[in-house]
Amino acid sequence: MLLVDGLVKYYKRTLAVDNLSFQVGNGEIVGLLGPNGAGKTTILRCVTGIVQMTEGRVEVDGIDLTKNEEDVKRRIAFVPEVPTPYELLTVWEHLRFIAMAYQTMDRFEERADALMHRFDLYEKRNDLVLSLSKGMKQKLAIACAFVHDAKVILLDEPLIGIDPKGARELKDMITETRDDGGSILISTHMLDTAEHLCDRIIILRQGVVLAEGTLAELHERAKMGNDASLEDVFLTLTEEREAVETTTLP
Fold first, then answer.
1. How far, CA to CA in Å, does 119 sit from each of 4, 24, 180, 185?
2. Strand 208-213 to strand 55-60: parallel, antiparallel, or no bridges (unpaired)?
3. CA dihedral for 80, 156, 246, 22, sign (positive or negative)
4. Residue 224, phi-psi category: left (phi > 0), alpha (psi -120 to 50), beta (remainder)
5. Is residue 140 a contact partner of residue 129, using CB atoms and an 8 Å limit?
């Protein structure tokens, strides 16, 4: 469903992503893991078309982003780490606006009501977004991502700042979307969540893929037993790369 091929992104002379290729299939949850500065947010922004790639190709449902950006964006939903919703709309108006923008008004009221109840937004439905707390704005952004018929959902640190019930509801919705054939790409620092939620994991460092695969495959790559946590695997692989880079410095 999502194809990224040879993605390169420079910010002036700084290389943020270096020749990155991966896929997210139908009915699959893929996690992007990496230390700060690994390029995770840049990758998501390139996939959504918010940031222009220096080189490479992105396809969603077989449609090339650079050739038909509007059709690609119609098929995706993106929740940034710091949402910036329209603060002078009410919660209900905001959800309706997103559904109208994506031309998915069929069963809108039913979907919106269900999402507002799941994320404890129903009592706030007539309140201006301006009045919401940071966590409630995050939950509104998540609800907006699921209110239309997106085939690919991109989430950048989606669990930061929301309460335990909201986090549980989001994880349930992610797995439900996967089970319905959707494709989900998640950037997160929460390794325990990624370990239990993701079908496949991509570990990055400085815009380069260190390792990719299922948890079992990553255990093998790190030469660690199956009882090792994803945190153990992650630290082993990233520290291994750092040691290689240090020893090869002139």
1. 32, 27, 20, 21
2. unpaired
3. negative
4. beta
5. yes
pLDDT in tens, the chain (250 residues): 899 999 999 999 999 999 999 999 999 999 999 988 899 999 999 999 999 999 999 999 999 999 999 999 999 999 999 999 999 999 999 999 999 999 889 889 999 999 999 999 999 999 999 999 999 999 999 999 999 989 999 999 999 889 999 999 999 999 999 999 999 999 998 888 888 899 999 999 989 999 999 988 888 888 887 778 888 888 888 876 555 454 444 5
Strand partners, 60: 2, 63
**112: number of Cβ within 10 Å:** 24
User: Would you say 98 and 148 are in contact if contact means Cβ atoms under 8 Å apart?
Assistant: yes
The 8 Å CB, 24+ separation contacts for 14-20 are: 15/207, 16/42, 16/207, 17/42, 17/43, 17/46, 17/207, 18/206, 18/207, 18/208, 19/56, 19/208, 20/56, 20/207, 20/208, 20/209
DSSP string, 32-72: EE-STTSSHHHHHHHHHTSS--SEEEEEETTEETTT-HHHH
Q: Could you give the CA distance from residue 142 to residue 56 in angstroms, rounded to a whole number?
A: 28
Q: How many CB atoms lie within 10 A of CB 85?
A: 18
In DSSP terms, which residues pair with 24 in a beta bridge? 2
Model pTM score: 0.90
- Which residue type is seen at 176? E
How many residues can be counted in the chain? 250
Structure-token pair, residue 143? 């609800």
